[in-house]
Amino acid sequence: MLSVINNAWALLLGMMLLMVGNGMQGTMMGVRGDIEGFSTLNLSLITSAYFLGFLGGSRLTPDIIRRVGHVRVFAALGSFVSAALILYPAITHPAAWILLRILVGFCFSGLYVTAESWLNNATSNETRGQTLSLYMVVQMVGIVAAQGLLNVADPAGWILFVIPSVLVSISFAPILLSVAPAPTFDTTKDMTLTELYKRSPLGFVGMFLLGSIFAAQFGMSAVYATQIGLSVGQISIFVSAIFVGAMLLQYPIGILSDRMDRRWLIIYVSGLGAVAALLGAVSGGAFWLLCVSAFFLGGMANPLYALLIAYTNDYLDPDDMAAASGGLLFVNGLGAVGGPVLIGYVMSRYGADRFWWVVCFLMSALVLYGLYRVTQRASLYADEAEDYEPVPFAPITAAGTAMTADVATEYYAEGELDEDGEIEEDGDTRL
Fold it and tell me: Residue 184 burial (CB < 10 Å; 0-12/13-18/19+)?
């Protein structure tokens, strides 16, 4: 682990600063939007706009990089983000914020793709697994740290928009000044969404539902917390609890994933997520109960992301895994675009506490569909499949891009352990 930090600390630091900047602006949309008098439906559209832009950026950025190079793309996208963050408090109109959020989502997606490719290129095959784990921790630490920074100034002013703008700008320095050379992009074959659904219906449907749940955590949770009257300090703790739960419970669930039928684990984890949401719904607004609910909801929902990818890979050949992971992330993005609109509509019509009920419904839908799929396909853990060896669980989160998922799934599918439990060198230089 020390060798990973020594070789990639500049890149990891740059990524953490990007995550802090993005985490701050994500939560500030709900807090400042309420101050400006935006309706719940408007705030849900603003939240969806980010994921719409993110979805477009993840698809288009690799082609742009191939044309003009990493440095130019990184500098251009970063400049747009810094400008957009400053413009939020200057143009306080829902339509303007929707357009700015599309731009910010597109640019952040492109920045992540670019930075992750640099990190990928700076990592050897022997340290790839450790780097994936450390990268996940850096993502979560950045988002949690962002919530703490919300308390340093008045959300009605400019400072809380200036800080993420500065952090994003500073993040360029360690990444662009890193000694790691700019990497190349490899073209992977495509897999149609129809084929992906046929290969793994549960993975397909699960990722769509999970996209809505993740968008609720990242954007609408702050809107909910603001509307029930929590202070800025309480909002920061509430949102942080989601991502702390995700960070702490990722590995225990990953260990179980490699030791039991993944379909049933998906069902159990989704069921616990539904119970956590139900606890929030009946908490009566008690702050610490809300934090407990947020902790376990985040702790169940975020590992589901990697769990569904691992489950889908169990039914694929190694050559198909990169294309499938890209398709799953696209489906997840579609769910993330639609989820906030659904939650915002229900909250505006029936009250803020319906936030929990919608999330509970989505988690329960995943449980029910998982139970249905159990009746439709024989388990890989059945007696006649004794030679089945599951693709190892990769610690990746929905905060990353398709590149991280591609690298992680291929790494765990193709890596072979030597007698000491280390990954054997196979000449591959990706993350």
Answer: exposed
